[in-house]
Amino acid sequence: MAKKIDNIISGKKAKKKLIVGINILSSIIGDTLGPRGRNVVIDSGADYPLITNDGASIAKEIFLTSPFEDIGMNILKEASLKTNELIGDGTTTAVVLANSILKHGKKYLKKGKNINILKEELEKVLLKSSNYLNEISKKNIDSEDIKNIAYVSSGSRLNSEILKEIYEKADLNSCFIEEGEDKTSFKIYEGIFLESGYISEYFNKTGEKYIDIKKPYIMLFDGEFKDIKNILNILEKVKEENGNIVLIASSFSKEAQKSIIYNFANNILNIYAIKMPEYLEFEKSFLMDLSLSTSSNIFRDEEDINIDLKDLKQLKNIKVSNNYTYIFKENEDKKIETKQRKENLKRKIEKEKDKSKKERLKKRLSILESKIAVVKVGSQTSAENKNLKLKFEDALLASISAKKGGVTEGGGLAFLRLSNYLENEYLKIKDLKISKEEMKVKKDAYRIIIEALKEPFNRIIKNAGKNPKKIYNEISKNKFKLGYDAEKFEYVDMFEKGIIDPKEQEITALKTAISVSSMILTISSVIYKDLDIEM
């Protein structure tokens, strides 16, 4: 029977309810951490349940019947999922860290101290932590590191071998994942990957992650595309053969956007608009590279463009989302002009000293050299297929993150080393010329993070059925030079063994954990809108 309840709770009761929800999330997701983590069965309402140990997928499906506990869980869930979105992995680590910070932070609150001052000190500890993780990370990544990262992330040797080969022959960023049949396979195609997508969600009628445009004609525009009227002649010809046309420009006027979306949404024209990536001063050069690579002309939207379909390049297909575009070409470009431009860009990259300019030149080169790797993830059953696809996506994003920011020792060792470093910094606080009150707050902030950083390691070891304290003592005796391989039950050099994590994953997870837990500790009241609930 539904009955009215008080929709506001305050003080200790409010925090207690929120933290109960967070504890539930941490307990379920924490059990999946490490090579011997457990799976979770999720009844998603489909014909088959999802069996997975993917933290992000599990978090999305957890809902609690107690509204206030559910609110607490959702605060952490949404923030941790952002970690997964940015890095591809690290959801579980972020949840476990946040839960531990809250546990130790509650002790601080019992002393009646100002949580906002503590929050400031925690952020200072975060900055020190980020700098330290940067120092101990391995910056130069090779294909073997990618292979190891992919294996740690997905637990699949096949995934790791595939991503290693893609790293060597193509670009991880240009890897496209789709569902296959009875086994996982991949193929590398000639194509172009752009870090930009369609201008409006209206183009995505199916709700899928990507839309697939078959055999589209392509038109490149220099500058802003202003008016669809200027290309009516060619649009009519495309419509006559029931074809697709893709417009690519640096920007689209509001009027042009309205016209394009109206015609598409009402099935008048199969017309799509894609915004070019913004490469600043290289925009003109980038457009020329794109034109050369696709064998397409460059137009200016200033007057009637009276051309025939034979003057437009028709491509194999284009897959596009709101963030990315994959342009597939028929054959490898062997034009002399393309070869010369590649060589010219390589010389410029070699001579360029400015890092940002060098990166932009590399982006230009990638347009002329890029290939697209299409991975078809498949298995014997639909339930397994979905889980394998999730794990491959995690491995891919973790690999991209590692390539970009470097790697640290895995298995929780990097956090243990950081915890030990902060312990030494903690001892120096007594020598600072600050007030006793400031010193107390600073010490509390350090102690909270020092203890929280041990928790991911503890969960990995517990999930392997071993005693965390005993193994921690052994690692500590070796001055954190060796870590623990929870899969093979042995002490090893983590870098040599290939047990590594993306550095950005570690930093983002810690940042998320501090941010969310600090916010929850500052909450004094919770208001729930829906008063009619089942009790």
Would you kindly provide a brief summary of this structure?
The protein is α+β, with helices and mostly antiparallel strands and 535 residues long. The protein has 19 helices and 21 strands.
Would you write up a description of this structure?
With 535 residues, this protein is α+β, with helices and mostly antiparallel strands. The protein is 52% helix and 17% strand. The chain has helices at 11-30, 55-61, 67-87, 91-110, 115-136, 143-154, 157-169, 232-240, 254-265, 283-294, 336-351, 355-369, 382-405, 413-428, 436-452, 455-463, 468-477, 494-497, 503-522, and strands spanning 2-4, 8-10, 40-42, 50-52, 175-179, 185-194, 211-214, 217-225, 245-252, 271-275, 298-299, 313-314, 317-320, 325-328, 371-377, 407-409, 483-485, 490-492, 500-502, 525-527, 532-534. The strands form seven sheets. A six-stranded mixed sheet has the order 5-15-6-14-13-7. Strands 8, 9, 10, 11 and 12 form a five-stranded mixed sheet that branches. The protein has a two-stranded antiparallel ribbon with strand order 1-21. Strand 3 (40-42) and strand 4 form a beta hairpin.
Helical residue percent band:
40-55%
Distance between the termini: 7 Å
Classify the oligomer.
single chain
Radius of gyration: 27 Å
Give a count of the beta strands, DSSP E runs of length 2 or more.
Answer: 21
Largest sheet, order of strands side by side? 5-15-6-14-13-7
Mean pLDDT: 86
Poorly predicted regions are none
Global shape: globular
